Amino acid sequence: MYYYKFKISFDEVEDFERNVEILSSDNFESFHQILYDSLGLKGHELASFSICDTKWNKKQEITLIDMLDDREAETPDYDEDEEFSTSSNIPKFMMKDAVLKDFITDPHQHIMYEYNFINPKVFYIELLKAFPAKEEEDFPRCTLSIGTLPDTDELIPSLIEDDLLNEFIDEIGEDELDDIFTEDQIWNDSQTEFDSF
């Protein structure tokens, strides 16, 4: 029996790294759980893995829940000439049914882990090496933890930074800005009066 040692990085935080070890016979649901615990994620959001090539192009998707409806279960209409197609011909699997060793095809396999599709956090996973597992060892486990995830709000850039706000005011003029806020206030006041009836 073998176990895999993976390195996990997160581009939003400098020097963020986790090393996770998991048996090759484990499924992606176990992988998801050790990542959730070791990365410091919060909530009970949807997540997915994407098996990627060396350039991080997605080849297969492994989801936490079955995200196919009856229509999608059939082969989708996919127009390769269409620049912004919402259809996808990437094969999809479920975490509980997908065993790691069946998807690891490269000695440095690249995997993308996406958590929370509304406010996504994307982690990049690379296989470092496979080792023989000893019976007395416990898996899965986190063996290296550097850096912490910031609060969700810190990942969203502020649209009202001082320089940007000053540039916006200079561009439209203070009088027009006053008009905008006055119109907003009139709408809010009228809405409050309406709601009181």
Write up this protein.
The structure is a single chain. With 197 residues, the protein is of the alpha+beta class. It is built from five helices and eight strands. Strand 3 (47-52) and strand 4 (58-63) form a beta hairpin. It is globular, with a radius of gyration of 23 Å. Mean pLDDT is 80; it is low at 69-80, 82-87, 153-161 and 183-187.
Question: Poorly predicted ranges (pLDDT <50, ≥5 residues)?
Answer: 69-80, 82-87, 153-161, 183-187
Query: Number of helix segments?
Result: 5
Question: What is the CATH superfamily classification of the largest domain?
Answer: MM3350-like
| Major sheet characteristics | 8 strands, mixed
CATH topology of the largest domain: Structural Genomics Hypothetical 15.5 Kd Protein In mrcA-pckA Intergenic Region, Chain A
CATH class of the largest domain: Alpha Beta
Strand content: 25-35%
The average pLDDT value, as a whole number, equals 80
In quaternary terms, these chains amount to single chain
Query: Could you spell the SSE succession in H and E letters?
Result: EEHEEHEEEEHHH
Numbering strands along the chain, what is their spatial order in the largest sheet? 5-4-3-6-7-1-2-8
What value does the Rg take, in angstroms?
23 Å
Cα shape: globular
